[in-house]
Design brief:
The structure holds 2 protein chains of 2 kinds.
Chain A (H helix, E strand, L loop, with lengths): L1 E10 L2 E11 L4 E5 L6 H8 L7 E6 L2 E3 L4 H6 L2 E4 L11 H6 L12 H14 L15 H14 L4 E5 L7 H16 L3 E6 L2 H7 L2 E6 L2 E7 L5 H9 L17 E11 L5 E11 L3 E5 L6 H8 L8 E7 L2 E2 L5 H6 L2 E4 L3 H5 L6 H5 L10 E2 L5 E2 L1 H14 L16 H13 L5 E5 L7 H16 L3 E5 L3 H7 L2 E6 L2 E6 L6 H10 L2
Parallel strand pairs in A: 3-8, 3-9, 6-7, 7-8, 13-20, 13-21, 16-19, 19-20
Antiparallel strand pairs in A: 1-2, 1-4, 4-5, 9-10, 11-12, 11-14, 14-15, 17-18, 21-22
Chain B lengths: L1 H28 L3 H12 L4 H25 L7 H18 L5 H30 L3 H24 L36 H19 L1 H11 L1 H6 L4 H17 L1 H10 L10 H11 L4 H24 L6 H15 L1 H10 L8
Helix pairs in contact in B: 1-2, 1-14, 2-13, 3-7, 3-10, 3-12, 3-13, 4-5, 4-6, 4-10, 4-11, 4-12, 5-6, 5-10, 5-11, 7-8, 7-13, 8-10, 12-13, 13-14
The chains are: A alpha/beta, B mainly alpha.
Chain lengths: ~500, ~350
């Protein structure tokens, strides 16, 4: 169906694609895996005409084709769904889908026939999308299906999906995979770009592995396993399971009593939660995203106004209700937020400036004349310590945080939060959008901190992550604790039921 | 420094492009652009009058450019610089009039303080309104501009005007509140040229603003708030405090225009003195890339245009000093269009693409 031959693409000094060969057979689901920056997206954007290759050929149905723009790609039956949806919120599904390919004459827009056609496509692939629904009323999963419909409406025979599951909940991922399998049955070809190995193994027929801009492996999915794929992606052996000794549990560091939190939109998101986290243990909270985890963490970090909370938060035996974020940090509470771009980093600031966020106002960072001035030397030292200890790449403290890959940004944040020797660590989605190699590293660091006696509260949407890291696992459902399970013995089904049914 | 030099390229292109487009316009009107530009630059850069007046005109623009810059760095658009400088200039004159008989040692610092505090206060009002009530600073600063202008006009007209003075201006300030003109220290520069110590104060403020924003913890907090308020909050920074602080500092810088105007130039409050300094300050900050050094360069450029324009008006056949407005407008347009430029250059492969 699609073949890339010897594709090379250079961005400035960076060789993004180095003589890449990819062959995608018709009627298959083909996974392209690799770490961030391995060149997967670049290769696919070349196939879709977003970029033009410096050299090499693209063959569609065995014929060499010159794809100069997405327009050419669509004409050849290639469609692409991006990681970030390109939908107009206040337009209906049908309006969004016809956007750029409006039916009817140039003066009159024939939405009715378009809607009928969309409905037919939706039924054919069992997408359950109502063409007359405004997009803003749809869930993320449904919006993704609209994106699929957009491509199908343009008669795409080959669909390229860039990290399609990044935004989906575990249940939505299952539904999504069912849709992909149905598409394959109907004769469509699918290319899925991802770095989640479990998904590759679950959905694909063939896998192309990329690393540093090169294709390093081509395998049939049935002939491989996660460990082999991980080794190809990273270029060395990777431990996928977390190895950890039994916890040496101390006294309760954090006690949450009947805590309720009202979100900015006025809805109650956390509804009377109580639990303890003791020093030396990792307590995990599993749950489908949007069940109050975000609000819980923000409240514990001191980022929620007291007027929006009830209940008690006790830290090291003292009530800290109403204590602000700065004071909580001084008391030894560190926080790795779920959204590193929104909360965790000043993207336009240098790594050095980011490394002092939260401690910038006190010695040794602030010095001279009553601690007004920033001590450049101290900032550089601190930044370089973090960069070295947490292997942040590239190791240049003067670079803006924006220039780093997601994994390295996360390592910088973790390094910064570890540097204060926290007694309680609040950590949300520590490995979201992070490469496999870095995930392994981050997991080991979390266990190390726990073994040093820190109390850790861990929230993650990755069920595997919370079960393998946690010493105790709580399941949250609609703002309440649905139950506590022993992560060593609980099955995925058991936890999954608590997550979705709440009992 | 290399980064700063790179940042200067686009403003420089904007300026050159503006002069080219302006030249075409002059040609269309029927004058010779080369003659007109020679007149413009020659008169603005002649010694001593040209340079003296150009630097004098640059002084308020440096202050207002810095004021806008500090707001921008905190993510705030301070359109109220104009109102802040009016209130401050009046406050300066008020102190200078009320305590007219005191000595310079006493009066000069007090007048400085009056200018800075009045500006800071007038700036802090929209800051507080934004921080604690969530009302947008752009609306409130515009509203406060009207109030400021009307208020000082009223006070001048009914309370501080000399009897029988046909001009709407206050009575003079005491001798003790005068600051020296630079002609006193620089040989060849006559004292009739109003360039005064406030110009040196403006340069000093550039250095102070730089140190404040990039070398102190307060500046870090202001810039963090401007860059990403959520992350600043996460880092234990009170966003409300930063908004009020940034607006107060911005207003204080705007207020120092009053020092130049009242203490160094007219020695009284002259109603409607500001030649849109506050609004030109926005252009100065934008053209100067929100950097203190850039602000000095941009303020000098606008001052050259302003002063040279007078001569273009007097000595050319068809064009008037409105050509200066046209040039300023085109410069701003080109600076604003920078994003578009970058985009179109990128399309032809001049840009390193985001991988």
């Amino acid at each position: 169906m699609l073949e890339l031959r010897q594709i090379t693409k250079r961005f400035g000094d960076v060789l993004a694609n180095d003589q890449v060969d990819i062959v995608v057979k018709p009627g298959t689901i083909h996974a392209i895996v690799g770490e961030n920056g391995a060149g997967k997206s670049t290769a696919m954007r070349i196939a879709y005409g977003f970029y033009t290759a410096d050299s090499g050929q693209i063959l569609v149905d065995g014929q060499v084709r010159d794809i100069k723009s997405p327009h050419d790609a669509i004409a050849l039956g290639i469609g692409m769904v991006h990681q970030h949806f390109m939908l107009v919120e206040d337009m209906t599904v049908a309006e969004n889908i016809v956007l750029g390919a409006e039916p009817g004459t140039s003066l009159s827009l024939d939405l009715k026939s378009a809607a009928a056609q969309i409905r037919q496509l939706s039924e054919e692939f069992k997408l359950a999308v109502n063409p007359n629904e405004p997009v803003e009323h749809l869930s993320v999963g449904q919006q993704q299906r609209v994106e699929l419909l957009k491509a199908l409406y343009r008669h795409a025979r080959l669909l390229i999906l860039d990290e399609p599951t990044a935004v989906l909940t575990p249940l939505e991922v299952e539904e999504f995979f069912t849709i992909l399998r149905r598409m394959r049955e109907q004769g469509k070809t699918v290319i899925i770009i991802t770095h989640k190995l479990s998904e590759v193994l679950a959905i694909s027929d063939e896998v192309t592995v990329m690393r540093d801009g090169k294709v390093v492996g081509r395998v049939q999915t049935k002939d491989t396993n996660a460990a082999e794929l991980a080794r190809m992606m990273v270029g060395r052996e990777v431990l996928l399971r977390v190895e950890k000794p039994d916890p040496k549990v101390g006294s309760a560091q954090l006690e949450v009593r009947n805590l309720s939190v009202v979100a900015n939109d006025g809805t109650k998101r956390v509804k009377g939660i109580s639990f303890d986290v003791r020093s030396g243990e990792i307590v995990g909270i599993a749950g489908v995203e949007g069940n109050g985890q975000t609000e819980l963490m923000e409240a514990l970090a001191g980022l929620v106004d007291l007027s929006r909370m009830t209940g008690e938060t006790i830290y090291a035996g003292k009530n800290i209700n109403g204590v602000g974020a700065r004071r909580r940090r001084e008391l030894g509470i560190a926080h790795i937020p779920e959204d590193r771009h929104r909360r965790g980093l000043l993207l336009d600031f240098s790594l050095a400036e980011n490394s002092i966020l939260g401690v910038h106002y006190r010695p040794p960072i602030a010095a001279y004349a009553g601690n007004i001035f920033l001590d450049e030397g101290a900032i550089q030292r601190r930044a370089n310590e973090i960069i070295k200890a947490f292997d942040v790449r590239p190791p240049n403290a003067a670079l803006p945080a924006r220039a780093l890959s997601g994994g390295n940004q996360q390592k910088l944040i973790i390094g910064r939060e570890y540097h204060v020797d926290p007694k309680l660590l609040l950590v949300s989605q520590p490995t979201r959008g992070v490469d496999i190699g870095a995930i392994e590293f981050i997991h080991r660091q979390l266990v190390r901190l726990r073994d040093d006696g820190c109390a850790i509260l861990l929230i993650s949407a990755e069920l595997e992550e919370v079960t393998s890291l946690s010493d105790r696992l709580l399941v949250i459902h609609e703002g309440k604790i649905a139950g506590e399970v022993d992560p060593k013995v609980a099955t995925m089904e058991e936890i999954g039921l608590l997550m979705t049914r709440g009992h | 420094m290399a980064k700063f030099a790179r940042d200067l390229i686009f403003p420089l292109i904007a300026v050159v492009a503006a002069f080219i487009v302006g030249g075409i316009l002059i040609l269309l009107v029927g004058d010779n652009p080369i003659v007109a530009y020679r007149l413009l630059l020659g008169s603005a850069l002649s010694w001593p009058d040209g340079i003296g007046y150009t630097l004098f005109h640059a002084t308020p623009l440096i202050f207002t450019g810095l004021a806008v810059l500090v707001g921008f760095r905190c993510g705030l658009f301070n359109i109220g610089v104009e109102g802040q400088l009016y209130v401050a200039a009046f406050a300066t004159a008020w102190v200078g009039i009320t305590l007219a008989h005191r000595s310079a040692w006493f009066l000069v610092p007090l007048c400085f303080l009056a200018a800075i505090l009045a500006g800071a206060l007038w700036g802090a009002i929209p800051g507080v309104l934004k921080a604690y009530f969530g009302s947008h600073e752009v609306i409130n600063t515009i509203m406060l501009n009207f109030i400021a202008v009307a208020l000082v006009s009223y006070l001048t007209q009914y309370h501080y005007r000399e009897a029988n003075d046909p001009i709407l201006q206050s009575s003079p300030i005491g001798w003790g509140a005068h600051i020296a003109r630079l002609g006193k220290f620089i040989p060849g520069l006559p004292e009739r040229i109003p360039l005064n110590l406030a110009f040196l104060l403006a340069l000093l403020c550039c250095l102070l603003v730089y140190l404040f924003l990039w070398r102190t913890k307060w500046g870090y907090e202001i810039r963090a708030t401007g860059s990403n308020p959520s992350a600043a909050e996460y880092g234990g920074i009170s966003i409300r405090k930063q908004i009020v602080l940034a607006m107060a500092v911005s207003g204080a810088l705007a207020g120092m225009v009053g020092i130049n105007e009242v203490m160094g130039y007219r020695y009284r409050y002259y109603d409607g003195f500001s030649d849109n300094y506050g609004f030109t300050g926005i252009a100065v900050a934008l053209l100067g890339r929100n950097h203190p050094v850039g602000v000095i360069l941009a303020a000098l450029l606008f001052a050259v245009l302003q002063h040279g324009g007078i001569y273009v008006d007097g000595f050319s056949e068809h064009i008037t000093k409105d050509i200066v407005q046209v040039l300023q407008g085109i410069i701003i347009l080109f600076v604003a269009a920078e994003a578009f430029f970058k985009w179109s250059l990128g399309r032809f492969g001049f840009r390193r693409l985001r991988a």
